[in-house]
Design goal:
Elements (H helix, E strand, L loop, with lengths): L31 E4 L2 E4 L2 E3 L1 E5 L16 H13 L4 E5 L4 E4 L2 E4 L1 H16 L3 E5 L26 H8 L12 H7 L9 H9 L5 E5 L20 H18 L4 E3 L25 H7 L14 H5 L7 E5 L18 H16 L26 H5 L3 E6 L29 H11 L8 E4 L1 E2 L33 E2 L4 H14 L1
Parallel strand pairs: 4-5, 4-13, 5-8, 8-9, 9-10, 11-12, 12-13, 14-15
Antiparallel strand pairs: 1-2, 2-3, 6-7
Helix pairs in contact: 1-2, 11-12
Length: about 500
């Protein structure tokens, strides 16, 4: 599941780095492409303000959620009014499983067409995410219908348990039959990627494809991970699937969808040549950071992934209520809200540092001044490709009861989960705004969409589901939503407009 620029002061290191083998393509008119570390459309640089709407894609299908096509158009109209120009959706529940065989739903697939057409009508675009790391069974203790939470749509573990019942979560990345079922080459299965991607390869409202939401070695609680899964496992999977997707659609951008975790240890395997420069013992020690967001703990090496020739977008996500982004081996939990947000700022700045400097100059004193040295093998990696901050979500006290942890089936504020006060939430969004001078794309996790038609049994069932969600027919609130009428919401809207100008 929850900022960026580049190093210009490390030219001396470039001779020891593998040059990014990025494939330059000439896109059709009105299609977004990446060039020189920027998004562009029709040869014009593009800054993106986005929002996540995982709940949107099942509209008017037989599989729950929204009830009318008009709801989709209404949602895009509301997003547009708040400065959002790209919406990120889940694009995988249309696969129906029976006895280990997947059958894509043509009716549900048509919903993607409605969404893309609605986006185009509003001058907007859509990121389509092709599977999800967090796919636990829908929580038994929830009163909400399936589809209310982002981890109740299936995904990686659905493939594993349907095809290899009882296997570990990371089997998805290595098992030839599962990989074939996900893409194309196996005759006993309907082929997901070869079904959905060609259908929309010519649609100008498609911003990009995304291989998975937050792929990691670890899955949700209740799933297992083998001891052999490491950064090479996921990078190798990305390499194979990315090449396949680009073969299906060379018109659109492609991202891996990872959370931007690093692997700075000297033992980290490198598949795409993003090996660090080791010029001295001092430099070596400086960058062997022990924290789980930096040492390969999650099986993700974002630099190596983004160095793949078929990956166009380098991705980051940040959910300070769930993950620890600290740099010490003793940092095992997010800590207080202030500590959690501080660590997020350090983490994001680590992606795009231009050298030792203060990155925060804000009248809101929630955060300490952060200082970072430039990473020794970031320059070429980021210089040629844009970075998208695809999700930022923070839980506040009014919404804590709605929270459904991505790594758990529990609902409600779990012990150790930072829950922000209204003031802290406002300060967090104010502080994030100070990273926008060099960011390519920034996406809220969610913001409230209202006035949707409600129907018993759908995720838009009417009525208030938290103190702040008072509008009948509001979009589902998973505890990470920025709700209308709050100072943080207004700051988030200001952020959107600041990005897009």
């Amino acid at each position: 599941m929850k900022f960026s620029s580049i190093i210009s002061s490390l030219a001396a290191l470039t001779t020891v780095l593998a040059a990014p083998r990025h494939v330059t393509r000439t896109p059709p008119a009105d299609f977004v492409y990446a060039h020189g570390g920027e998004f562009k459309v029709n040869n014009t640089p593009l800054k993106v303000a986005g929002a996540n709407a995982y709940w949107m894609f099942l509209a008017s299908s037989s599989l729950f959620t929204l009830n009318e096509d008009a709801d989709i158009f209404s949602a895009f109209s509301q997003y547009k009014a708040t400065g959002v120009d790209v919406v990120r959706i889940w694009a995988f529940r249309e696969v129906l499983w029976q006895n280990g065989v997947a059958t894509p739903s043509q009716g549900a697939l048509s919903r993607f067409g409605v969404i893309l057409d609605a986006a185009q009508q509003h001058g907007m675009k859509v990121v389509m995410t092709l599977t999800n790391n967090w796919s636990v069974d829908f929580p038994a203790n929830s009163s909400k219908p399936s589809g209310f939470y982002s981890n109740s749509f299936g995904g990686i573990d659905t493939y594993v348990q349907q095809i290899r019942p009882g296997a570990s979560h990371d089997t998805f990345y290595t098992d030839p039959t599962i990989i074939a079922a996900y893409k194309a080459m196996y005759p006993l299965y309907q082929k997901y990627l070869s079904f959905v991607i060609p259908a929309f390869k010519s649609h100008p409202a498609l911003f990009s494809w995304e291989l998975a939401n937050d792929p990691r070695c670890q899955g949700a609680i209740g799933t297992n991970t083998t001891s052999t899964c490491n950064t090479a496992t996921i990078t190798t999977w990305v390499k194979g699937i990315a090449a396949y997707v680009k073969n299906l659609d060379s018109n659109h951008l492609l991202g891996a969808g990872d959370s931007g975790f690093f692997c700075t240890q000297p033992t980290c395997p490198k598949i795409n040549g993003a090996s660090p420069a080791r010029r001295s013992t001092d430099l070596k020690k400086r960058w062997e950071i022990a924290g789980p967001a930096y040492n390969g703990h999650f099986g993700v090496d974002t630099l190596d992934i983004c160095n793949d020739e078929n990956i166009d977008i380098c991705s980051v996500q940040a959910f300070p209520s769930f993950n620890n982004f600290g740099q010490s081996a003793t940092d095992t939990a997010p800590g207080t809200t202030r500590e959690a947000i501080n660590s997020i700022v350090d983490f994001v700045n680590f992606h795009h540092s231009e050298g030792p400097k203060s990155v925060l100059a804000t009248p809101y004193p929630i955060l300490e001044t952060a200082r970072l040295e430039p990473h020794p093998y970031a320059p070429l990696f980021i210089r040629s490709k844009p970075i998208a901050f695809f999700a930022f979500g923070l839980t506040d006290k009014a919404q804590a009861g709605q929270l459904n942890n991505f790594d758990s089936t529990n609902i409600g504020s779990a012990p150790g989960v930072p829950v922000a006060t209204e003031w802290e939430e406002l300060c967090a969004f104010q502080t994030i705004a100070h990273t926008f001078n060099s960011i390519n794309a920034y996406f809220l996790w969610q913001q409230t969409i209202v006035g949707l038609s409600s129907k018993t049994g759908s995720i838009i069932s009417g009525g208030a589901s938290s103190k702040r969600q008072t509008n009948i027919g509001s979009s589902p609130n998973d505890g990470l939503q920025v709700s209308q009428g709050t100072p943080a919401y207004q700051q988030a809207i200001n952020n959107n407009h600041a990005i897009t100008g």
